[in-house]
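We close this part of the discussion by returning to an individual protein. The sequence in question and its structure tokens are set out directly beneath this paragraph:
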Amino acid sequence: MIHADKEKYKDILEDSVTYLEQHGFENIKADSEGYESPKSYSKKGSDISITPDIVATKEGAKHYFDISLKSEEPKLLKSKWLFLNTLSALKSSHFRLITTRGHYKFTEEMLDDINLNNKKLIKI
């Protein structure tokens, strides 16, 4: 999610964290009450900052998760996903998207636009 959407979809973030806990993920970091916030990445010479929605580990591997919901700023969301996908590849990590009913088509179209159609969605 981008910053403007965070408060609006707080419950979906909490549901996503619960889902990951139930599926064996540990050391979860999320912008949610009771959790440490994930590390942010800033662009040099700019005020742009990217923070994954959730970061967790499972079986020793680090996973970056972003929640995909319809957004007023699809261009920013696409940039965020491309950055997180590249970051995870550089760090031998995994990048996954979490989405929910009513947002599947939006997510799939966005992934097609940026040629990330190999991403399997987590649907909660």
In short: The helical segments are 3-6, 10-22, 74-90, 104-113. The chain is about 35% helix and 25% strand. The longest strand covers residues 61-68.
